[in-house]
């Protein structure tokens, strides 16, 4: 990659009626002149705004604003002897991203051949985990044998749990760059796909998300394609339930995964590892309750039988979680070779809030409203944003925007707007324009996903109030992801001059095997992580937060791809794309 320009812009571009800002890296203490050029001719000019030292970037910076520019075209920005990467001003900047970010999910499907005619030339691959050698397959997966999750000092993480049954858990999405499938990460991901379609229903913008809008095998079946994609995961989640008559009947297994990690690269069809069901968890069960209830109301016009099945599953899961309120998934990272991510979560009040919210929104029943009122979850909103293990904010976004007869709905809506105002206040302190200011000053694992989820909160405030200032805040935050950041990179494959292309994946592994592709267009990287927990990014430990990133396939702690980060990207792209 060539030297990054000191003028950092959104390398994709800016909407004509939206805010337009860039960040200039300079040690100048006074304002400097800038010019916006189109075909070498200046169309706007002014002076920069010095912002001093940004500790998150480790840089001295100015901000350049050119909001008044409305004409469309291709531009560069000059300031302080430096020239930006080229960028566009156009209406349709995010239309393609809405599609591409959703089609990424098709490439994550397990149990089906991936057609390169849909995902793109070079992206076809054989079906993974379908009981064809060398796969052990997902058609009849046993429970993890007792003692298989024992630490070096003899602690059994599952307290001797095992069971004698097997389950068909084919289908679903591979969670990230590995072969595991996890209910709690699938939950927030499928929820955001359902949520972006539900928002389109409210705003009358469903046509771009209708049947035939995505490159998926189900196109042409009369059902909106984004619902078809969500169904692939929902049906797998239903298969993860403990059978009747067994201990923990009605609960949901936390994950299905390999016994050991497979090396990079390994295509899913070439995975030789035994597969096991891990102990069920209350969190996974509440995730199923939430998304099944959500899916029930969206599938009702298209497949009444499936909608009824989902609602029944949601009720049953909610009741099972009530009967087993604190069955927790352990931190399996303490094992020498776990073969899967832990997704452990010791605080379940937010999961209960989310499940009750979706069941109330679908049924309107007092039982679920009463549980919402009694839930002690706090705080609902965090400066760091929401994610798979902090879903209370998502529950509030749903309660605030999905029409219902909840008496406290106005209070919830006010809380969302108040949280969005706090985010805008934080955003104003950031010379790179992003609404992400962790209280510790350190960036978390998946910081880009957290940024995107904060943008979803701002977008919800826009929907609630109609105030365009919140939409402008979303646009300003998106700039960070597409190049207006300390490293001058776009974190989305295929978008921008300096896009990341080596996200951690076992099958999108071009960096290791040139016969394999990079991650498909529209894949977002996890982004800077101050912990730098992998052997590649470890060399960056102690760097300013925004600089704890490297575009390397081995840097799983900063550069992995996951379904929940791409669902956040898809939600925001759908909000910004034209109706």
TrEMBL record:
Keyword Ribosomal protein (UniProt): no
Coiled-coil residues are none
Supply the alphabetized keyword list. Answer: Carbohydrate metabolism, Cellulose degradation, Glycosidase, Hydrolase, Polysaccharide degradation
Instruction: Give positions of region: Disordered.
Output: 511-531
Tree of life domain:
Bacteria
Q: Where is the Cellulase Ig-like domain?
A: 4-84
Q: Which residues form the Glycoside hydrolase family domain?
A: 94-572
On whether Hydrolase is a keyword of this UniProt record, the answer is yes
Enzyme Commission no: 3.2.1.4
Q: Where is the active site?
A: 551, 560
Give one GO biological process term. Answer: cellulose catabolic process
User: What is catalyzed by this enzyme?
Assistant: Endohydrolysis of (1->4)-beta-D-glucosidic linkages in cellulose, lichenin and cereal beta-D-glucans
Recorded GO terms, molecular function?
cellulase activity
Family (UniProt)? Belongs to the glycosyl hydrolase 9 (cellulase E) family.
- Protein name (database record): Endoglucanase
